[in-house]
Amino acid sequence: MDLSPRTRVWRDGRLEKENFPAEQISDYLAESDTVVWLDLCAPDAEGLDLISEELGLSPLAVEDAVSHHERPKLDRYDGHLFLNAYSVHLSADGTELDKHEISAFITERALVTVRTDEGFDIDELIKRWDGSPDLAKYGVAFLLHGLLDLVVDGHFAAVQALDDKIDGLEEELFADHMPRDTQQRSYRLRKSLALLRRVVLPMREVVNSLLRRDLDVIPAPMAPYFQDVYDHVLRATEWTDSLRDTVTSLQETRIALQSNHLNLVMKKLTGWAAVIAVPTAITGFYGENVPYPGFGKQWGFVTSIAVLVVTGVALYTVFRKRDWL
């Protein structure tokens, strides 16, 4: 696993150099026309000491960056902002959601990203930056937009994949033969949606905070791009809530279908029991050791058989007509 730092520097909106030693960051920041990016993968607190001293990062923010399972948030400190977010990926079977934490220190002319592992595709982030060179002149706002856009697009892709899985679950629910693992997969999907909601919902507040003018982070030309990210966050949040309701409805529908099927089975068993009960009563009566009409006579035996057949057919016809059989 490659944990070496990755660096880039832009000068006047043009990429000048990349993968230079992190110790040179302070030299580039000493020049007024540069913007610097540094990426650290799975660092410890000591690994952040050098850059925290050069950029004047808050110890609380550094502690959050090396801690795990922090909620998505945007904290404001003296001289910089601290961002925490999660990228998500749906497993191959579509029932497990993998999340990867990423933090960012945002200063006036530097962006420092801190990843807990290699699950976040940093190469895809670089491709996004390289795909919009005309926006590089906006400095850190340009870098931050690429990061948030990639994270939110991942949320959207996960929601879309979960939606497809739920559609397949709906088709199985009303199939003639429901797979045995339908219930298990429905609970897994519900769990994945709950986890995704905990990741997506706070992003609404994060992006909305960045759009506030008092932070003075986003220049006016970049505001529409961040507004577009905010709209995607809202759509992902609403879509996630809608899918959670859908999964809940599917579970309730499955229980109702099982209950209806059980009632149908019980109704049929009850009907057959009634059909069998009447002939049993007749044979039981004729089995009494007492004289009865036709006792010891052949016509009495024939009459009893006829009564059995007629009552059985009559009961079957009535129950069949009422859809009890």
Blueprint of the fold:
Blueprint: E1 6-11, E2 14-18, H1 25-29, E3 34-41, H2 49-55, H3 59-66, E4 73-77, E5 80-90, E6 97-106, E7 110-115, H4 122-131, H5 140-173, H6 182-210, H7 223-286, H8 298-321
Parallel strand pairs: 3-7
Antiparallel strand pairs: 1-2, 1-3, 4-5, 5-6, 6-7
Helix pairs in contact: 4-5, 5-6, 5-7, 6-7, 7-8
Overview of the molecule:
Helix 5 (140-173) runs antiparallel to helix 6. A seven-stranded mixed β-sheet has the order 2-1-3-7-6-5-4, sandwiched between helices. The protein has helices at residues 25-29, 49-55, 59-66, 122-131, 140-173, 182-210, 223-286, 298-321; strands spanning 6-11, 14-18, 34-41, 73-77, 80-90, 97-106, 110-115. The mean pLDDT is 83. It has 325 residues and is an alpha+beta fold. The protein folds into two domains: 6-257, Beta Polymerase, domain 2 (2-Layer Sandwich), CATH 3.30.460; 258-321, Up-down Bundle (Methane Monooxygenase Hydroxylase, Chain G, domain 1), CATH 1.20.58. The two termini are 66 Å apart. InterPro entries: CorA_cytoplasmic_dom, CorA_TM1_TM2, MgTranspt_CorA/ZnTranspt_ZntB. The chain crosses the membrane at residues 269-287, 299-319. Keywords: Cell membrane, Membrane, Transmembrane, Transmembrane helix, Transport. It is a multi-pass membrane protein.
